[in-house]
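Collaborator request, handled under Task 6.
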Amino acid sequence: MPNTPPKILVAEDEKDIRELIGFTLRFAGFDVFLTKNGEEAVEQAPQLKPDLIMLDVRMPKMTGYEACRALKSNPATSTIPIVILSAKGQDGEIQEGIESGADHYIVKPFAPDELTNRVKEILRSVGALE
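Structure tokens returned to the collaborator:
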């Protein structure tokens, strides 16, 4: 039976960035699911059971921090690693991301290969990628 590629759920409200992330990660061989906001990510994650969730910080309906807290408090999604994506690299923002339960933090803008490498690193660390 062939190995199925790791599933990644991405919540990003900016269409261009969302599509860039989707394209980059699909090109790297991942199974990518895109949502427009934190609320959609929180709704879809229990059914999808992704190996990784990426959340933009500033989104309508539910911020990345709120979505992260909701996902970490749900037993069905609490163990899934979460990456916060933010254009804000200030310590306060990173601290808020970590406090909301995020496992990792990637500051935008990022180079596609940098994103791919970080994602592979994170998935390897949780045993979702060889």
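The cover message to the collaborator said: "The two ends are 16 Å apart (CA to CA). Residues 6 and 30 are 6 Å apart (CA to CA). Please let us know whether this matches your experimental observations."
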